[in-house]
Write a structure and sequence with these properties.
- The chain is built from eight helices and three strands; from the N terminus they run H-H-H-H-H-H-E-H-E-E-H.
- By secondary structure, it is α+β, with helices and mostly antiparallel strands.
- Among the domains are: 51 residues; 64 residues, no CATH class.
- A three-stranded antiparallel sheet has the order 1-3-2.
- Helix 2 crosses helix 8.
- The protein is elongated, with a radius of gyration of 26 Å.
Length: 167
């Protein structure tokens, strides 16, 4: 079993914890202060490109845009079952008047209708679960990166101090 007290005496571990704290504080700063200020200043107007630069430098834009990153990936195709959905409907009489066949009947507020545009897509519940898992995965990776950066910086400082003492 890992002895946390002994591990905490290691400079790299303390630095990693500091890196984690800094990463989380930056996230709460962006969500609680920075983005609301931008919303107050710019409202519905487009944001200038420079406004996202701080989040890009710290890597937190991945969390803000996690929904779009996951949506454009193939995760839904890999993990979600497909279901039929109709995205375009019309009244049955319109289809019959044009000489078409109503192969997929649907209900249009109590009136007979036809589905004229359909596709197969992932189920809603599965999409939510994949988005949650993707967001948590991206957050975990970002925190891991902050831990590693903090650990490396602290290890380098400890080595530098050790070399200073030995000289």
């Amino acid at each position: 079993m890992i002895n946390l007290r002994k591990l905490y005496t290691k400079p790299w571990f303390r630095g990693g914890i500091k890196g984690l704290v800094i990463g989380m504080l930056l996230f709460f700063f962006y969500i609680g202060i920075y983005l609301p200020i931008l919303d107050q200043v710019y409202g519905r107007n487009p944001l200038p490109n420079w406004t996202i630069t701080p989040m890009m430098i710290t890597g937190h834009h991945y969390l803000i845009f996690a929904h779009f990153i996951i949506e454009s990936s193939s995760l839904f195709d890999r993990f979600c079952p497909k279901e039929f959905y109709c995205y375009s409907r019309t009244a049955k009489w319109v289809v019959e008047e044009e000489g078409g066949d109503c192969s997929i009947p649907v209900d249009l507020e109590g009136q007979p209708g036809c589905c004229i545009g359909y596709d197969y897509g992932p189920t809603g519940e599965c999409v939510e679960q994949v988005e949650k898992a993707g967001f948590l995965s991206i957050a975990f990776m970002l925190l891991l990166i902050y831990f590693v950066i903090g650990a490396v910086i602290s290890a380098m400082i400890a080595r530098f101090r050790h070399n200073q003492k030995s000289e």
